[in-house]
Design brief:
Elements: E1 3-12, E2 15-25, E3 30-34, H1 41-48, E4 55-60, H2 69-72, E5 76-79, H3 90-101, H4 105-114, H5 119-122, H6 132-145, E6 150-154, H7 162-173, E7 180-184, H8 188-194, E8 197-202, E9 205-211, H9 212-226
Parallel strand pairs: 3-7, 3-8, 5-6, 6-7
Antiparallel strand pairs: 1-2, 1-4, 8-9
């Protein structure tokens, strides 16, 4: 999915979250979105997901994520950093996702099994009672099973064990070449495995847009200087 952002601005009362962001990501881009708290990352993600309106131009394959959010929703998948506190059981969550996205529940179960998560055993448990790792595995399974055109991942391996993390990277490597991945992470491992490009935000503006390796080199150099 192609992402085109020109002059994106967003204000919440007196707080300016985005100050004229310009970004172009071709279909199949593997991009890490980084920046400190308050830099505008969350606002930009919410804009792309069609959750908030904005000023400027934001297009996904030529369509507005806000005006055309119903039509685009089936092509997007988002895995949040903090899982929602759902009282519904795992079975109910899976059925809801499957019905909403016209998915076979068995496809979610198949991906979950790759993460060593048995949905049959966990089915009766309230989602909110699952461990952090189990919640993340379920949300990732649903996202991969949906076969999105734009996959947005916010700190996706934070609660995963080593084997689940390796499976996650494997599934990312198997994504169709036209699937665009937007990764929000500060983990060097994730950036090295998943991103070929880094876009850094600071105070609502793009402060860096370039190759991931160049960004990582700059970051490593800054750490060395800070400890001198």
């Amino acid at each position: 999915m192609r992402v085109e952002i020109q002059g994106a601005r967003k204000r919440f009362g007196h707080v300016v979250a985005l100050r004229g962001v310009d970004v172009y990501i071709p279909a199949g881009g593997r991009v890490a979105l980084v920046g400190p708290n308050g830099s505008g990352k969350s606002t930009l993600i919410r804009t792309l997901l069609g959750l908030i309106d904005y000023q400027g131009s934001v297009l996904l394959d030529g369509r507005s994520p806000y005006d055309d959010r119903v039509e685009l929703a089936s092509k997007l998948a988002y895995v949040p950093q903090v899982a929602p506190a759902l009282s519904a059981t795992v079975d109910e969550v899976v059925r809801l996702i499957s019905a909403t996205r016209a998915l076979d529940p068995e496809e979610i179960a198949r991906v979950a099994a790759l993460f060593e998560l048995d949905l049959a055993l966990a089915g009766a448990q309230p989602f909110k009672n699952l461990s952090g790792g189990m919640k993340q595995k379920l949300l990732l399974s649903a996202a991969f099973a949906a076969r999105p055109r734009l996959l947005v991942l916010d700190e996706p391996t934070a609660s995963l064990d080593v084997r689940a993390r390796e499976q996650f990277f494997s599934l990312c490597n198997q994504l169709d070449a036209e699937v665009t991945v937007l990764l929000c992470s500060h983990r060097v491992e994730e950036l090295r495995h998943l991103a070929t490009r880094v876009i850094a935000l600071e105070d609502g503006r793009v402060s860096f847009d370039g190759p991931a390796e160049q960004y990582l080199q700059h970051a490593a150099a800054a750490v060395v200087v800070a400890h001198v």
